[in-house]
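Quick log. Single chain, no ligands specified.
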Amino acid sequence: MKKGTTAIALALSATLALSLAGCKSKQPMLTPTTPSETTTSDTATAKTQYPLTIGSTKILLGETKLQALYDAGYTIEAPADPQTGSAADGQTNELAGDQEINANQSIENCYVMKDGVKQAEVNVLGGQEKGSLSDATIMSFLMDRAIAEPTEVITFDDIDLNELTMDAFTNAVDGEATLYGTETAIYQQDGWDMDAQWDESGALTSIRVSID
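-> predicted structure:
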């Protein structure tokens, strides 16, 4: 009699164990999301542009056409010696907006001039078909005070370059810049390539921003 009761109890225990195991297998597996993963995703979605301005002209790299600078009254010039990209002797050639360029042609060292003063330098890229220089897209921007002191107000991410400290630049790129001492910051992520330089007093001397 005891043997029968024991066998029944064991059978019931086994059935209950199987039933519980079945219930557990139906529960969904949850994958934890770390705060860092959420932060990275939100940042990548929100920060798709670092707008620049020269005077009142807004430049979105990879989007704005060179025509925007022509329309604002700037002239575009290039070094007289395109082989070296140098204009150490001060000789430049003005580039007409209707100048024809080939499809996907890249033109570097385009000087953005106002009243004979170099404000900045841009690189541009032609479209999918042959067209005019004015229709080329601005892909890179450089301001270098060692070459010329701009007379126009220039901003990066809505910050006047006269007020762009290393901390301000680092904050603009969400703290992802690589710093070298107190004079150099580099940012290379998500197709962006940037570097900025400051002098010993903390004043910005140059900034280069480009996008693939």
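Residues 48-211 form one domain.
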